[in-house]
From TrEMBL, chain A:
UniProt topology in membrane: Multi-pass membrane protein
Keyword field: Membrane, Transmembrane, Transmembrane helix
This protein's name: Protein YIPF
Keyword Kinase: no
Automatic annotation (TrEMBL), chain B:
Gene (name only): LOC101391895
Segments forming domain Yip1: 99-272
Protein's recorded name: Protein YIPF
Family: Belongs to the YIP1 family.
Native organism: Ceratotherium simum simum (Southern white rhinoceros)
Any Pfam family matching the protein: Yip1
Subcellular location: Golgi apparatus membrane; Golgi apparatus, cis-Golgi network membrane
Source organism phylogeny: Eukaryota, Metazoa, Chordata, Craniata, Vertebrata
Entry keyword Membrane: yes
Topology term for the membrane: Multi-pass membrane protein
Domain of life: Eukaryota
Positions of transmembrane segments: 118-140, 160-181, 202-220, 226-247, 254-278
Length: 235, 312
C-alpha cells in the first residue's frame, strides 16, 4: 500500500521503469499500477471542477444557491420522506427565515423597552439557541443525525410560521376585534401543526424507536414558543 | 466434509442449549449480574468452537455491568450521553412517581434506580419557564378584556426572568443541598447521601406538578388559585421530604428538622414568588410591577424597583 501511495505522485519514476509499465498493461489484478492510472485522471477532473466554480459569474453562484434554498422550501411546504433536506444541508434558508421573522416581529411603537414584544436579538437567540439545544438533545438521546443537518431541518421548518406571521400582519391591518383574533389564531394553529409535521417527517427517523417522543417534544415546545410570539404580536 | 458437518451441528446444539438455559438473556438489557455471570460460565464451559465471539460479547457485557464506575472522561460526548440514557416510558414513569408521593416510596430508589437522567430536569424547567411566562401574559390579556383600562403589552422580558429563576432554583439549590449533605455525612460513609445528579433529578421532577398548576392559575378566581397553589406545593414538597427523609433521619433531630423546613420554605417561596410576579395584572396607574417579596434571585427587573422599595 505504501507503493500505491507513492506511485501516483511519481509519474517520472513510473516512466523510468518500463518493466513496471509493461506489467501494468498485462496484469489487471495488481492494484499498484491500476491505482496509479485511475487516480491521475481523477485529479485533473477535480481541478477542472474547481476552476469552473471559481470562474463562473457571481449571478450563477447566487442563483444556484437560491435555487437550492427554494427547492428546500418546496420540500418543507409539501413534506415527504425525502432525504434532500438532510443530504445537502445549508443554513442560508434558516438565516433568511429567522431574520425575516425577527424583523416582522418588531413593533414600530415607542413603548417602554422592557414592556414590549421580543427584541430582534431575543428572537434570534431563541431561534438559534433553541435549535442548537434541540439538536444537542436529540444527539444525546442517541439519534444518528448530524449537527448541521438537524439545524438545517429545524430552521427550514420555521417557513410555515413565517408565512403565518405575514398573514397575521396583513390581517392586523383590518380593524381589531374578536374575528380578527380568531382568524389569526386559526392561521397560527394550522401553521404550527404544519411545522411540527414537516420537521417530524424529517427528524423522527433518526431517533431510536423508544425515544421518539422524547426527541419530538422539544421540537413541539420550540415551535409553540415561536407561535406564541407570533400570536401575541400587536403593532 | 464430515468435520464441517460435525462442526455445524455442534454449533446449533450449543446454541439451543444456551438459549434454553437463559431464555431471556438476549432480550433484557438490564438483567441481573448474577444471571449474566451464569450465562458467561455456560459459554466458557462449552468450549471455544461456538462461543468465540460470543464469549467476548458476554465478557464485555459483564465488564460493563460490573465496572459501571469506569466512565469516559468528562470531555467526551459519550460522558454526557450517559445522562440521557432514558426511554419515553421511563421518563413518564418518573413523572408519575413525582406526582404521587407516598411516605415509604423513595423517589430515588424506586424510580431512578441509580440511573439519574438530565433530560427530565432540563426540559421540565424549560417547559415551566415558558408556561409561566405565557400564562402570565394570558392573565394580562384576560384581565384587559374585563377591564379595558389595563394596559396590555407582550412583556417578553418575563420569559428571561422566568427562565433564569427556574433554572437557578432547580440547579443551585440541589447543589447547596448536596454540598450540605456531603458535609454532614463527612467522608465516613460512601453509601449515604445522593449523588448530585440524583438530587437534581429529584428537584427537577418535583417541579413538574407546577406546570398544570400554572395553567390552572389562569382561572381568575382567587381562592381557587390559592387552593391549587397549596395543593401543588404540598405534593411537591411532600415528594422532596419523603425522598430526603431516609438520608436525613440519621442526623441529629435538630439538623434534620432545620434542613427539611428550609427545603419546604424555599419551595414555598418559589411558588409564591411566581404567583405574585407573573400573575398580578398591572394596575393602569403604575408603570412598574408592584414591589415583590425578596424571594426572587437578583434579576433584570429588580434593580429598578429596589431603590424605590428601599426608600419606602
Amino acid at each position: 500500500m505504501a507503493e500505491a501511495a507513492e506511485s501516483p505522485g511519481d509519474p517520472v519514476t513510473a516512466s523510468s521503469r518500463p518493466l513496471f509499465a509493461g506489467l501494468s498493461d498485462i496484469s489487471i489484478s495488481q492494484d499498484i499500477p491500476v491505482e496509479g492510472e485511475i487516480t491521475i485522471p481523477m485529479r485533473s477532473r477535480i481541478r477542472e471542477f474547481d476552476s469552473s466554480t471559481l470562474n463562473e459569474s457571481v449571478q450563477n453562484t447566487v442563483m444556484r444557491d437560491l435555487k437550492a434554498v427554494g427547492k428546500k422550501f418546496m420540500h418543507v411546504l409539501y413534506p415527504r420522506k425525502s432525504n434532500t433536506l438532510l443530504r445537502d444541508w445549508d443554513l442560508w434558508g434558516p438565516l433568511i427565515l429567522c431574520v425575516t421573522l425577527a424583523l416582522m416581529l418588531q413593533r414600530g411603537s415607542v413603548d417602554s423597552e422592557k414592556d414590549g414584544g421580543p427584541q430582534f436579538a431575543e428572537v434570534f437567540v431563541i431561534v438559534w439557541f433553541g435549535a442548537v439545544t434541540i439538536t444537542l438533545n436529540s444527539k444525546l438521546l442517541g439519534g444518528n443525525i448530524s449537527f448541521f443537518q438537524s439545524l438545517c431541518v429545524l430552521g427550514y421548518c420555521i417557513l410555515p410560521l413565517t408565512v403565518a406571521m405575514l398573514v397575521c400582519r396583513l390581517v392586523l391591518l383590518a380593524e381589531p376585534g374578536p374575528i380578527n383574533f380568531m382568524v389569526r389564531l386559526f392561521v397560527v394553529i394550522v401553521m404550527f401543526a404544519w411545522s411540527i409535521v414537516a420537521s417530524t417527517a424529517f427528524l423522527a427517523d433518526s431517533q431510536p424507536p423508544n425515544r421518539k417522543a422524547l426527541a419530538v417534544y422539544p421540537v413541539f415546545l420550540f415551535y409553540f414558543v415561536i407561535s406564541w410570539m407570533i400570536l401575541t404580536f400587536t403593532p | 466434509m464430515a468435520a464441517a458437518d460435525e462442526l455445524a451441528f455442534h454449533e446449533f446444539e450449543e446454541a439451543t442449549n444456551l438459549l434454553a438455559q437463559t431464555p431471556d438473556a438476549a432480550t433484557t438489557s438490564r438483567s441481573e449480574p448474577l444471571t449474566l455471570q451464569g450465562h458467561v460460565a455456560v459459554a466458557v464451559d462449552s468450549g471455544g468452537s461456538y462461543g468465540a465471539e460470543d464469549e467476548v460479547e458476554e465478557s464485555d457485557k459483564t465488564a460493563l455491568l460490573q465496572e459501571e464506575k469506569q466512565q469516559p472522561g468528562f470531555w467526551t460526548f459519550s460522558y454526557y450521553q450517559s445522562f440521557f440514557d432514558v426511554d419515553t416510558s421511563q421518563v413518564l414513569d418518573r413523572i408519575r412517581g413525582s406526582l404521587l408521593p407516598r411516605p415509604g416510596h423513595n423517589f430515588v430508589r424506586h424510580h431512578l434506580r441509580n440511573r439519574p437522567d438530565l433530560y427530565g430536569p432540563f426540559w421540565i424547567c424549560a417547559t415551566l419557564a415558558f408556561v409561566l411566562a405565557i400564562s402570565g401574559n394570558l392573565t394580562l390579556v384576560l384581565a384587559q378584556r374585563r377591564d379595558p383600562s389595563i394596559h396590555y403589552s407582550p412583556q417578553f422580558h418575563k420569559v428571561t426572568v422566568a427562565g433564569v429563576t427556574i433554572y437557578c432554583y432547580a440547579w443551585l439549590v440541589p447543589l447547596a443541598l448536596w454540598g450540605f449533605l456531603r458535609w454532614r455525612k463527612g467522608v465516613r460513609e460512601r453509601v449515604g447521601p445522593y449523588t448530585f445528579l440524583e438530587t437534581v433529578c429529584v428537584y427537577g421532577y418535583s417541579l413538574f406538578v407546577f406546570i398544570p398548576t400554572v395553567v390552572l392559575w389562569l382561572i381568575p378566581v382567587p381562592w381557587l388559585q390559592w387552593l391549587f397553589g397549596a395543593l401543588a406545593l404540598a405534593l411537591s414538597a411532600a415528594g422532596l421530604v419523603f425522598t430526603l427523609w431516609p438520608v436525613v433521619r440519621e442526623d441529629t433531630r435538630l439538623a434534620a428538622a432545620v434542613l427539611l423546613s428550609v427545603i419546604v420554605l424555599l419551595h414555598a417561596l418559589l411558588a409564591l414568588g411566581c404567583k405574585f410576579y407573573f400573575f398580578q395584572p398591572l394596575p393602569p396607574v403604575h408603570a412598574a410591577p408592584p414591589p415583590q417579596a425578596t424571594s426572587l434571585p437578583p434579576s433584570v427587573l429588580l434593580p429598578s424597583t429596589a431603590p424605590r422599595s428601599a426608600s419606602t
